[in-house]
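Hi F.,

I've been meaning to write this up properly since the lab meeting, where we talked about keeping a consistent format for the predictions we share between groups. The idea is simple: the sequence comes first, exactly as it goes in, then the structure tokens exactly as they come out, then a line or two of notes. No screenshots and no reformatting. I'm using this chain as the first example so we have something concrete to point to.
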Amino acid sequence: MKLTLSYAGFLVLAGTVLFIIEAAILLNYQPPGMIRYPGQGIGRELFKQVALAAAVVAIILVVFGLVGGWFLAGRMLAPLTRITQAARTAATGSLSHRVALAGPSDEFRELADAFDTMLARLEAHVGEQRRFAANASHELRTPLAITRSLLEVALSDPDHDSYELEARLRAVNARAIELTEALLMLSRAEQRSFTAEWVDLSLVAEEAVETLLPVAEARGIMITVGGDIASTVGSKALLTQMTMNLLHNAIVHNLADGGRVWIQTTLQPRSVELLVENTGEVVAAGIIPTLTEPFQRGQARVRTDHAGVGLGLAIVKSIIQAHNADLTLVPRSDGGLIVRATFPIPSL
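Output, unedited:
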């Protein structure tokens, strides 16, 4: 309605201005050679006739402006109506609907495409969150169920070994704490709730190696660390956790004896890279996308007796995304995995 009144008002205003200009000309009109006396002139007679015709034309302009303006406004606002309907559909929880606006690439088309892109990302994010919530609830329920079973068995058997029960409860409790801390770390990374500072990834890599070296030595795995000084901006705590997860994953999923792990930092003109490579079993290329999913390891769900909670690479992925970096996983031809994290260097 506003656009219709605007169109009609502009049309009537343009006609009124045109009539005023014409009236001024007619009032002063006098044929060449005609003697003009005060209060006389052929222009006044013409003005009377034109004024009557202008009144009729003005009425036609108003009607034409309202009808034509309503039609044009409807045609112009039709894409917005479709976008509004899509937004209302999304508000009900259905994120699969798309505007899919056809036609020329104008401002409305750009708005519709941006809205469809937002819906697609939101649908993927919500689906991932739902899967994560379902997996997390399942994983958290497992240690609680084990604890309850142990307590029930202990209560039903008065001659039970209290030391054995205590050891098993400690192990189950430790796993529950580990899982909870991993979930909190993952949530923190996804929310990007950290203070950015300059971090040298080469020092972070050396610190991670020193921390996990006993674990590697116990498994007979050799770690090689080196590279350039590679500084980026981010959270030192999160980047340290990311490096620890990558290195721990490379140690755990390695050969029993004689395995190798390489961790290297590289300085590029506009980015820095952290590369972690390990030997191990051959990894099929088809399962690479599933490795960064929560509670996933390859093609199967992580078991509760595995040395980890299935969130290592999921946390790595979230931390890398929080730092606007890129994560690349490539299987080695002779077994194992190559993980490359590329971080941008902010301009000063």
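Notes:
The beta strands are 197-200, 221-227, 231-234, 259-267, 271-278, 296-297, 300-301, 326-331, 337-344.
The mean pLDDT is 80.

If this format works for you, I'll send the rest the same way.

G.
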